[in-house]
Amino acid sequence: MNGAPFVVREYVRWGDVDPEGIIRYDAYTRFMEMAEGDFFRAIGLTYSHIFERYHIGIPRRAMHMEFLSSPVLDEELEVRVYVSHVGTTSLTMNFDFFGSGGAVRAVGHLVIVCVDLAGRKKRPWPAELLERIAPYRVEKAPASEPR
């Protein structure tokens, strides 16, 4: 499949920066969490719906980030979210961060695992959830291609 990324914008805030006004690396986790939550809301699945409707949890197995250039305080970041891989029990959500003038600031991804809430064992993704993320499946995106 080759869809389009989901896009969300957020400003680099005071709590995201060091004393010189440059983003701290750990601030990207806030941006990823915000973008992931907005992504699921946009496809009609809040976290509580995912837990209650499908009886699954979605813990993270891995997180990876590459920092390419440094955004600064009050800079608006555009975060492009897309799914690059769907396995039987896991999926990879990618996050490409763009700053002023379209500068690529960072690229990263999360590997999320589908687990049964009762036994916390891996299980296949619900078909309806996969259908809802299908428009955001992207094979490759320009920001994350090798340089």
SSE topology sketch:
Elements: E1 6-11, H1 27-42, H2 47-54, E2 56-57, E3 60-67, E4 76-86, E5 90-98, E6 104-113, E7 115-116, H3 127-133
Antiparallel strand pairs: 1-4, 2-7, 3-6, 4-5, 5-6
Description:
By secondary structure, the chain is of the alpha+beta class. The chain has a single domain (6-137), classed as Hotdog Thioesterase (Thiol Ester Dehydrase, Chain A, Roll), CATH 3.10.129. 21% of the residues lie in helices and 33% in strands. It contains 3 helices and 7 strands. The strands form 2 sheets. It has a 5-stranded antiparallel β-sheet with strand order 1-4-5-6-3, with helices on one face. Strand 4 (76-86) and strand 5 (90-98) form a beta hairpin. The chain is elongated and about 45 Å long. The mean pLDDT is 92.
SSE topology string: EHHEEEEEEH
Going by CATH, what is the homologous superfamily? Hotdog Thioesterase
Strand sequence of the main sheet, in spatial order? 1-4-5-6-3
Tell the overall outline: elongated
Category from helices, strands and their pairing: alpha+beta
Q: Biggest sheet, in brief?
A: 5 strands, antiparallel
The helical percent reads 10-25%
Question: What is the gist of this entry?
Answer:
The chain is of the alpha+beta class and 147 residues long. It has three helices and seven strands; from the N terminus they run E-H-H-E-E-E-E-E-E-H. It has a five-stranded antiparallel sheet with strand order 1-4-5-6-3, covered by helices on one side.
